[in-house]
Design goal:
Length: about 250
């Protein structure tokens, strides 16, 4: 699938923290950005409760992690918008305010597909659960012109995708990953392994933990082989798992 074949398609990731984008979908982002798809990342917090990696003070961590996110996005070929809510307190964000901000992003970017965490946040992280809830709420509002008319023309997102039941770093060593429930889209990203690794390394403060997950617990040829997504809303591909997020 390329832009010339389908028109200039859009893909928006609505996530909670810097590094979520690369951890979950760095290969997918690079793949579609290279093909000409407009890929954007909407990040709700600056990750100020994360590890410093002994690279900066706690006070400087928000600025450091924002810089890391922007560098990772540059490597992958995506645009970035940060909302600036407080890490580990995202669930307390004013509902109308964050809804408006996400609606503005959706109407500006006008993506065909939005990707966010599943309702359980992937690993029950409260920020992941919160951004999933806020994203679904905003997705519905963005399609209704009565919500925030000043935020732009209403836009209907064709397909909403969630993170899958199997952790991304386990997909390459899971027998028949496509046969597992919830694996509606299985993206082969081996050819984008170097870009994903470079983007993971760009998150310098988080690199010790990321290195352990992707490079110590398993071989990178396995842990960086696939990325997967679960269909939450929209047309189901004629064959699952589909190898293209825009299939059918």
């Amino acid at each position: 699938m390329t832009c010339s074949m389908t028109g200039c398609m859009g893909l928006l990731f609505v996530l909670a923290h810097p590094d979520d984008e690369t951890f979950l979908a760095g290969g997918t982002i690079a793949k579609y950005a290279q093909s000409g798809v407009r890929v954007s990342i909407l990040c709700a917090t600056r990750g100020e409760r994360g590890a410093t990696g002994d690279l900066c003070s706690v006070d400087d961590l928000p600025v450091q992690r924002e810089s890391e996110l922007r560098e990772a996005a540059r490597i992958l070929g995506a645009g970035v918008e940060l909302l600036g809510y407080v890490d580990q307190q995202l669930g307390t964000a004013p509902v109308d305010e964050i809804r408006r901000k996400i609606v503005q992003s959706i109407r500006r970017e006008r993506p065909e597909i939005v990707v966010t965490f599943d309702p359980n946040g992937g690993n029950l992280h409260t920020d992941h659960i919160a951004i999933s809830r806020f994203a679904v709420d905003a997705l519905v509002a963005a399609a209704d012109r009565r919500w925030y008319p000043e935020a732009g023309e209403a836009h209907f997102v064709r397909r909403l995708l969630w993170t899958p039941p199997v952790p991304v770093f386990e997909l390459g060593r899971t027998p028949d990953p496509g046969g597992q429930p919830g694996m509606d889209f299985l993206i082969e990203v081996t050819s984008f392994r170097e870009k994903k690794e470079a983007a993971l390394r760009a998150h310098r403060t988080q690199w010790p933990g990321l290195h352990k997950i992707f490079f110590e617990k398993g071989r990178p040829e396995e842990s960086l082989r696939y990325e997967a997504f679960r269909l939450a809303r929209g047309p189901r591909p004629s064959k699952t798992p589909a190898g293209d997020l825009f299939a059918d």
